[in-house]
Amino acid sequence: MAAPPSKTVKDLSGVWVMNKSLSDDPDPLLAMQHVSWFTRTAISLATITLTVTQTPETADGPATINIAQVATGGISGTTENRVLDWTPREHSDHIFGRLEGRSRFLPLAEVADDFLRHGWEEAIAETGTVQSLVKAVDSDWSAEQIWGFEQLDGTRYYVRHVVVTNDKAERTQARLVYDFQHEKPEA
């Protein structure tokens, strides 16, 4: 389902499902992140649902984006808790291990990488993007993501451009596309 016009990088709250037919294959990303073949195969067969809760920046603190990922059958995926202040924070993840990550809002004009910078809807030049940078603490890879919205065949989608690199200067990239399902129910 199309992302409604009310959804921007300042309000991603809601339930989103990965659109596998429009997304690039995430397997090369996961392989470079040393995710096992068994886990990558399970992920490739699953439907991935993101439940996003976003809070705006206030006088009390920066904006936050918390994402619970669930695979088909209620299998728990990763949890993303992002504070958009560009402060490095460490956390452990049962799929990716120990990570250090940081996130922020970033104007599109400041995105350096061509793949990460191109393909966005025109409004992204004004509203900006979310940038996420994650480095594996006990491994050799890092991942940069830029989040925003794209128009694909006349339909608006929430999209993540992802680039994973390692210490051998190897690189892989993918575009992950998400369908909007509905607003997140109030707790």
Give an account of the 3D structure.
12% of the residues lie in helices and 48% in strands. The protein is mainly β. It has a 10-stranded antiparallel beta sheet.
- Percent helix: 10-25%
Instruction: Give the N-to-C terminal Cα separation.
Output: 24 Å
Beta-strand level of the residues, as a percent range? over 45%
Helix and strand composition category: mainly beta
- Which term fits the overall shape? globular
**What average pLDDT do the residues reach?**
93
Question: Helical element count?
Answer: 4
Q: What ranges have pLDDT less than 50 throughout 5 or more consecutive residues? A: none
Q: Could you spell the SSE succession in H and E letters?
A: EHHEEEEEHHEEEE
Taking strands numbered 1, 2, ... along the chain, how are they ordered across the largest sheet?
A: 4-3-2-1-10-9-8-7-6-5
Characterize the biggest β-sheet: 10 strands, antiparallel
For the CA atoms, what is the radius of gyration?
A: 16 Å
Total beta strands: 10
How does the SSE layout of this entry go?
Blueprint: E1 14-18, H1 27-32, H2 37-45, E2 48-55, E3 64-71, E4 75-83, E5 89-93, E6 97-106, H3 114-117, H4 124-127, E7 129-136, E8 141-152, E9 155-166, E10 171-182
Antiparallel strand pairs: 1-2, 1-10, 2-3, 3-4, 5-6, 6-7, 7-8, 8-9, 9-10
Q: Which features characterize this protein?
A:
10-stranded antiparallel beta sheet, globular, 187 residues, mainly beta
